[in-house]
Amino acid sequence: MLLAFVPPMGIDMYLPAFPRLADEFRTDPAGVQLTLTAFVIGLALGQLVLGPLSDRYGRRLLILAGTAVCGASAAACALAPTLETLTALRFVMGFSAAAGVVVGRAVISDTAQGPAAARMFAILMALSGIAPITAPLIGGVVTSAAGWRAVWYTLAVGLLLTLLVALVGVPESLPPERRHAGGLRATLATARALLTDRVYLGYTFAFGFGFAALFCYIAASPFFLQYVLGLSVRQAAVAFAAGALLATLSSAVNARLVGRGAAPAALLRTGLVIMLGTTAGLLGVTLAGQLDRVVALALLLFFVGLGMIMGNATALAIQRVPKAAGSGSAVLGTLQGVLAAVAAPLMGLGGRDNAVVLFLGMTICVTVACFALLLTRSPADTGAETA
User: Fold this and answer.
1) Residues 158-161: contacts with CB within 8 Å, 24+ apart?
2) For labelling alongside 96, which of 63, 77, 210, 289 has CA 20 to 30 A away?
3) Cβ 368 vs Cβ 271: under 8 Å
4) What are phi and psi of 196, to 5 degrees?
């Protein structure tokens, strides 16, 4: 759970400081959002490399090394003299943070399959949802009290504590007899094989574009909440945390439903329908010029749907490659990162006080995710139907 905290803390904790970064480095929203893109690209590439390596060398070593490098790069971010330096350090931070993400998913796959894995992923999503709730609140308080650079020192201390806990509490879940040769070539070979699997592609794209819709909001939220809705830094942090709280509660309910026999695929479809209705409705309201704080509360429904898709889509996709969970998780995570990296800078094209680009981007991403599920209706493959 602590390892799963690293990416959302690395993303969400400095969101309240975006306007201050833009002012200090004399750049526009898109320029600041590039630091977010760099982190996500590093996270994607890190999963592509570290996932297969964990299949070959085991999980524990990569977890410890990745967490240590991530903590060091976070401390270096606090000293960044330019936006370019900060962007480069964010890439390193994202690459190293990938160890906890991809290896964490592989550890679950090492120990559970089928509905049990779906339930465990849902529980992990619910627990890890604590980070997006607390991160902007902590970031808002720290930024207001000590400036945006103090956010990185705070994060570095948290990563040091995570490393200490990992040293004591994370066992090796992949014994030597179950390891096999990995590397980039093995990952690409796995990716080529998965490209012929319609069901895997369907769940993977549903997960990736669903996350891209969330990332549209993550990238645009500091400006949307503070400039469009007129909230203060702390109010914006609370508003962001409210969405994360709903996603966490939804994930917890989802885990309970799966544990009682509900089909993960059915819950996934329901979540996407909720997300699509919410984003499309808010896009229409914004185009009509009727968006205000009260109407914007409807956005909370988006997070209810989000909690129903992340764990289910992850489990349904990764269980397709149980013998190479690290590689399978890497492919999933790489797509997730690439789509998020593309979405983040695009959200700055509308400027600080325009929400049309935000809701248009979210609606397009969720629409693609819905269409992706059509690929899972493969009559020749009953594996996903069983799931």
Assistant:
1) 158/5, 158/9, 159/6, 159/67, 159/70, 159/71, 159/74, 160/71
2) 210
3) no
4) -95, 0
Residue 176 counted as domain residue: no
Residue 175 lies in a domain: no
CATH assignment of the domain containing 190: 1.20.1250.20
Q: How far apart are CA 151 and CA 10, in angstroms?
A: 10
Tokens (6 digits) for 140: 């808002």
**The residue to which tokens 């990938």 are assigned:** 98
- At residue 123, what are phi and psi to the nearest 5 degrees? -65, -45
Q: How confident is the model at residue 132 (pLDDT cuts 50, 70, 90)?
A: low
- The pair of structure tokens assigned to 286 is 């914004």
* Structure tokens that stand for 258 in this block: 């799966």
Count of domains for the chain = 1
Q: How far is CA 36 from the centre of its chain?
A: 12
**Type of residue numbered 117:** A
Coil, helix or strand for 155?
helix
Count, in order, helices (H) and strands (E) of the chain. 17, 0
Whether residue 26 has pLDDT greater than 80: yes
C-alpha distances (whole Å) from 231 to each of 198, 221, 222, 227, 246 are: 44, 11, 10, 7, 20
In a domain, 361, yes or no: yes
DSSP state of 225: I
The residue among 244, 235, 208 whose CA lies nearest residue 11 is 244
Domain that holds residue 216: 2-170+181-386
Q: Which of 268, 297, 324, 378 is nearest to 102 (CA)?
A: 324
Burial class (CB in 10 A: 0-12, 13-18, 19+), 26: exposed
Q: Is residue 118 one of the residues assigned to a domain?
A: yes
Query: Using the 8-state DSSP alphabet, how is residue 141 labeled?
Result: H
Report the C-alpha gap between 56 and 71 in whole angstroms.
Answer: 25
- Which pLDDT belongs to residue 258? 82
Q: How far apart are CA 16 and CA 32, in angstroms?
A: 12
Nearest to 57 by CA among 98, 106, 4, 96: 106
202, 375 in Cβ contact below 8 A? yes
Interval 329-343: pLDDT, tens: 777 777 877 887 788
Biggest CA-to-CA distance, the chain: 62
Closest CA to 105 of 324, 376, 256: 324
Task: Look at the block and give the residue holding tokens 């509490």.
Answer: 169
